Amino acid sequence: MDDYFDIVTLPQVASDQASDYDDGIFSESASSYRTMSTLQSREVAEYFRSICGFTYPADENVPLVFPADATADRLDVLLHVMVRLCLGGENVPRAIDVMLREGGVSRDGSGAKVLDVVTNSGTWVNEMAGTYSTAKFVTLDSKPLIPHKPHARIEFQVYDFYAGLMEADNTFDLVHIRQGVLATKDFNFLLRELHRVLKPNGYIMITELPFDTYEGTTHKVPIHSATNIAQGIIFAYEMCAAQGVDTDAWKDMAVRLAPGHPLWGNPGARDPNPGPARRVSAVQNAHGFRDISLNFVPVPIGTWHFDESQQILGGLMRLWGFHQSQSSLPVVLQRGIEESAARAFIENLLQEVMEVDRYRAYMEFQIWLARKI
Q: Domain of 300: which CATH number?
């Protein structure tokens, strides 16, 4: 089982993709209200509502999965740090790094354009802007989680992007989306929109952390010894299903990205035996993605792993899971459970998370990379 985990070496020196934004990322000033926002305070308040004492987006078309408060800002930074460590200290794979440094997919030196969904803390897009000095960025969110410091090459946008992207066709060299499955009730539509605004041969990078948690020394055994954690995962999936969240995308993302999926409306997707002329036309007008790869990155929860770097990463994952569990009261109450029983369940859940080392538990980041046909 230990061989399943790649050794993640924490960077001791600055990465090629490092930027000045790294400094003080967990400080109060960096993690929360960085500077002035372009939105007035009255406008900001209209984006949020309170449920069971937790702050959520006011837009009912946005799934109520995780709260959108000051803690969410810090947890997004924490998630970003874990993803970056899983990528060897980088923000993007080598192929994307080379493309961005060469000015985009056309390699003409004019500078690449990058779309980032969802902004949240803004950590990823700020680090990227600090690294790639000729690239321009657009970052989208459905709510203004925090005020963002203005940047000459970053355009921060807040609107109901799940209803359609306000960008022209074939605009971006890279589309980056993280935890996008939980950001919309129609992930297929969002995927088509991301494809539309991406340039031919442009890259899409999708990073997700499904709820699934595993335990023990056998490969991918669903957690069951920690009964409250196991039940919490069931609650999370049931809540997503009730809200129309397409968590099946975690299982079949690569299939959806492929041109043969009905999502893209290609002739070959409907006719498995097209004639020669139809095959030529299908190739010339195909939609979808090619060179699709999926990287599973297991991350321990807690410090049970023998490798020190994995212990540090696992400590971060346990911290992330603990704070997400703390905010799960609305999820549990949606089951129709009395509030006193719900609070007792969460208390027991938090106790299991703190003692998670005994279960040798782990989760998996899933990172897809593909290029538009």
A: 3.40.50.150
